[in-house]
Every structure is written in structure tokens, then in C-alpha cells.
Amino acid sequence: MFLKFHRSLDRVRRRFRKDDRGTTAVEFAFVGGPFLFLLLATFETGLNFLTEYSLQSATTTASRLIRTGQVQKGGISKDDFKTELCKNVPGYLDCANKVYITRTNARDADGNLDEDLEDKTAFQPGAPGQIVIVETFYVWDLFTPGIMKLLDLHTSSPKPAFLANLGPDKRLITGVAVFQNEPFNDASGS
After folding, report:
1. Which of 62, 107, 160, 168 has the greatest number of beta carbons closer than 10 A?
2. pTM for this one?
3. What are the residue boundaries of the structural domains of the chain, listed by start?
């Protein structure tokens, strides 16, 4: 009985050794998942850098309206300024709901911005010759599943933020423009 079982087991083993159908599928199962993850992570990182560049460029372009006095003379509000900013960001960004703007005045140009910042929520475009800081923020939702769990393998404290710097699945992208307003005539005619 044992000999019969051993012979039938040998026949099954020989059949499996000769039959290599399906090995490609098994190999792809081992390699395909990590490859797809790396492909998505690379795409997301590239798109993230493109978004950072685009937001910075849009911030610089829209801030020119403040620098040249067009905002001050035209009575442009914070919402109108955001609309001007959104004209310059890529269409794949949800500019209406995920872009935030702060505009601050720097009291002087001594290089110590921590002491020079005023109310960050106010939107005051500043007077001629005044130093102005315009900051824009975009909340980016990471779309590669589990990317932060895989990248966050460090045991050190504090843990590095790699892609996510605003919670586990979000990244705060910023654009900043610092400039001195040109000597335009303000709305009062001075």
C-alpha cells in the first residue's frame, strides 16, 4: 500500500516538473505588485514636484498684481486674488476648495521674518514701497495606497515626513513670493 502511494506521488511530481505552464503568472505575481507600486510612487512623486513648481509659478505671477499696485488701485479682494491665482494653476488641482492664501506685511527688511510677520489671515496688499509676503498653500491628497506605511520604516524620532507632511495621507504644498511693492500711486492719489 505504501509502495503504491509512493509511485503515484512520484508520477504527480514528474508531471509537475515537466509542466511549466503558469510559471510566468506566478513570477509576475511576485514581481508585478512591487513594480506597480514603484511605478505609482514614481508617478506621484513627479506629479507632486510638478504641482509644487506650478503653485510657485502661479503665486509669483499673481503676486505681481500686488507688487505693481493693481490690487490696491482696483480694490481687488482676497477672493478675487484667489481667482487670479487659480487662472495660473493646472486644471487637475482643485483650486477653489484646496488652495489657501495668506498675505502678510513685513515691517522692515532686517532679515528676521519671525519678528516681522503680522496677521497671517488678513489680506492687505500693502502700501507703495512696503515689503510683502504672499503665501499660497495647496492640500495634496496622496493617491498611492500605503506609500507612507512603506516609506515610514524609520525607528528614529521624529520620523521623516518624506511625502506626507500634513497627516498620514496629505501633503501641504506651498508657494511663496517676497517682494517690495513698487512706488505706485495708491488709490488716494498720493
Report:
1. 62
2. 0.72
3. 26-180
